[in-house]
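Write out the 3D structure for:
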Amino acid sequence: MIAFIQGKVFKKSAKSLILLNQGIGYYIFLKESELEKIVLGEEIEFFIHQYIREDANVLYGFRTFPELEMFELLLSISGIGPKAGLGILNLADVSQIRKSILLGDSSLLTRVSGVGKKIAERVVLELKNKIGNLTAEEQQQPSFSEINAQMDAIDALVALGYSQTQARETLSTLDVSLSTEEKIKQALKQLGRS
């Protein structure tokens, strides 16, 4: 089983890349937000989850070990497959997902295509006792209404033609207490200058 891989980015597409390691190309699926940052020819490393089924042998790559652990916890829930797991990790960072689960709030999880209210509630219920307590850093994370407002602003900027990475990075420089509309206006001003 493959657990970690290091190599050079040979090709990339919207959802995956081919990583060249000692003459062998490994096809690896990544979070879209991570994939946007990667440059062809770049030397890079990933923690790997190898998803094996009767009809598939697929590699999923993560830059950090906590992301890999969260992905594997999500896959342990009936109704969550690799696509939904990556979608959840693409929404927010691991500490925000942990906070959402520990506080019993499933609304963040339902933003992912294919994850309805029942499955999101099952994730919260089944993982609440498996992921420990909130760290001091996680307690400082923004509230879920602020996260949802941020996600709405990201969705609006993506709909206007900006990449998810551009939208996320630009919005991260703004005050989280701004309304969604105000965030979009300020982000468009900043993006217009670059």
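The CA atoms of residues 108 and 145 lie 9 Å apart.
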